[in-house]
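Q: Could you fold this chain for me?
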Amino acid sequence: MTALDGRRAYTRADLMAAHGLGRSTLEKWYRERDANGHPDAAGTVGSQLVWDAEAWDRWYASRGAAPGVPPGLATRDELAARHGLSRHRLKQLWAGRAANGHPEVAHRSGKALYWDASEWDAWYAALEEDGDRDGDDGGDPDDLVTLAEVARILGLAQTSVTVYPRRPPAGWPEPAREEPLGGGRVRRLYRRRDILAYAARRRP
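A: Sure. Below is the predicted structure, expressed as structure tokens.
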């Protein structure tokens, strides 16, 4: 615990250790203090800002956070529900974070991961504007794609898409080509353009 003029105080490092908060989350809350009521810094210790512990604890408790979880955060399932995405698609986006700029985890509780919801929303909105909402990798619209590739484009688990040829959802396209395989099986190939059109129609 840090002290300032004989009073208990917190540095950002103290808060990160005590609450499992990410530095980016703490910095964001402080930047937005005029809107969220975050306490002003009480001073500095060395080169670090510090906050009066009682004032910070009182503010943090007033936000009504769930036990052990900071306010304003969302799990992968909550983000999926907010944006109409599959959990599988969110895992894809997280796996590709080095390339797509996916926000870092703001909090960990056991195996559960939490992201700053407003930061994630803003990042995803920008991703949508770039045309990557449904995993389109910029391939030729006239290319033929397998069901496995269709699942990736739609952000769905592959097992979900394999039933579509037998029980097609509304708007599901006809395959552009069918190739017989051994044992009576069939490989269905779809035109990327048709899959992207279907993806656009299914967006909430």
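A (continued): The first helix runs from residue 12 to 19.
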